[in-house]
Protein 1
Amino acid sequence: MSMRVGDLVQYIPSPSATFKWERYTDAFKSLPGIILREVDAKGTTTRRFEIRWHDGQISEEWISYLELFDNSLTT
């Protein structure tokens, strides 16, 4: 399933990033986030999105670090 504007997502860091950069990870990413727009990243084929997190923070994230939010896990 493809991600698109309006989808709820969660941030999933790569295992190596979590291990090496544990204290620098983006802990502010309050779940879920909503995709606001797709970022036009010239020179790359990897998609990137602008995300507004539940606490109001906004960040740009590579699609490889996102997955669709499963609302059934929070109820």
Protein 2
Amino acid sequence: MFKYILTAVMVLSLVFVLGCAEISELTGQSSRQGPDTVRRAELAETWQMDQARIHVDAGDEAMVLLKLTYGDRVDGYFYLEKGEEIGFEISGNSLMYAGQAPVTEGSAKLTSGRFSFVATQEQGTTYTLTFLNPTEDDEDVFLEVIYPISGSLFFPIAAE
């Protein structure tokens, strides 16, 4: 019994001394770096502009969700701040746009893009902007999205 109490006291002492971040490093568990909101502003009392820096791990994807109503117009652009190429998709109920880097040797790589679409009844009210990292290095993407103030922009929490 004394052995169990001593072990529990040692573990609790370790947590207080090292903290949760160091414990995560020791156990090999880490939290994924989330998006960083750079700026959020209302434009002319009708529009919302969000700017964010999104980290995309090597070989992974990052998503941005937009909740809209039918007829809402969305405009935006993105560019790589760190990295070589990025894949980009827009989908509602189905895939609406897929911008992928060319697969032929020597072709220009996709590093930026502009997009614009209108929410339709066929595509629904929830739209997903997906950034796909095909490289073996982590990448950072700058994203700006302008949408009606009645809409909402979300960054899903990824489960590890």
Protein 3
Amino acid sequence: MGDLQELLAMAHMFASFCTRQEEKYKDFQRHGYTWRWEDCEAAYDLVRELPNYWDLVEAWRREHTCRSCGFPKDAHAVQCQAQK
């Protein structure tokens, strides 16, 4: 994963899945995510400073998240029907 892609992934983790709750992020770590919570928060702030960041975020989301549950494709929500 390139640097920008990883930055977008970390920001997405902070903003979307975890609803900014560190406790929820800890559950994602069992799927192999090794980022520190503080790094995800910093990535979120950095991404928001990029020009036309929303277009980058939307393109990343379309490619890397499940359309059914919105979680990363390798870490579907428990109730997601797409993973079954």
Protein 4
Amino acid sequence: MGNQEVAEPKGHSVDFLLAEYQSHRESFWRSEELGERRVNFFITIATAVLAALAIREEGTWAGGQVDPIFFYGLGALLLFGVVTLMRLIRRNLVSHEHARAMGRIRRYFADRDEEILRHLYFEPRDDWPYRKKEWNQIFSLGTGGLVETVSLVNNLIVAALCALLAVSLSGCIIGGLLGLVGFIGAWIVQFIYVKWRYDKERPTADEIRFPRN
């Protein structure tokens, strides 16, 4: 911006960019809503599976033996949780792409009328926002968003699987300890995966046209 010369906006250019802005805005909200629906569906399925397993629990612990249906059910639920987590990560990345695209369009109008800058809540730039995870967040729930919610449910499923496996082999005390180890291990693995995806998909220098001044 600054003192650089810019051409006066043409009517068809303004109409085109306004339509483009609206398209990105609608896509952003569709992506957000899709993520929420996907998590709600996962939570519903998880609740149903766990309720079914709880009903079947009576009489399955005799002699320290665990009915294999528990492993099959929880294993399938964990697989679904992992897929849901992967889709949520992709949804977050796409949502932020739309947000950066809207920032780029805002820049077009701000370059031609700097008075607009005083009224913009979000800066007219396309190098932000982007997703990131810092190592100091590894044992926190962050903002408590959808990714963290699904990760937490996956952790509980892994902990249950580890505990059931230990109970079937050794006993309840070791089962509790192995469940805790499984919970912590699953949390770390998922955190590393999310961080890797966010770092990998971060906008590169050649993709940014209007960084913050």
